[in-house]
Write the structure tokens for this entry.
Amino acid sequence: MVLVYTFFASLFGIIILLSLKTWELQRGAKPFSVLRYRLDILMRRQAEDFKSYGKYISWTTARLVLAFLVAKTTDILTIIWKKWNESKLFMLIKGKIIPRATGPVSAFLKDVAEFKSSNTSSNGDAQKEISQTENSTKIEIK
């Protein structure tokens, strides 16, 4: 469900960005220019602060922490994937489990199965007739 919300939030964001760009091109002016300027200054200040803190960070430790987080995330996603593959819903979707229902749907399916089984003998005769007519209508070209 989180993925669905994330998808729609990103879709909404893209729509807003495209509509702002269209508005900007039609009017010839940038919307929220003062706000954009302030945000740009704030982001530059944050980037400078981050660069100044960079000399205090042990990059070897940061890489090891990142590798650890990636490994743990991979393990968790692998476990989730295995549980999903073994779930009844996944097996049902793949067609490995045939749902057994009781009631009118089941009776209908039984009727269809009986109809198909009763027509297999006549269907086989029809296939024989088709193959015989194909053999008799072949034209030899010399």
The radius of gyration is 33 Å. Residues 58-119 form one domain. Residues 104-136 form the longest helix (33 residues). The mean pLDDT is 79.
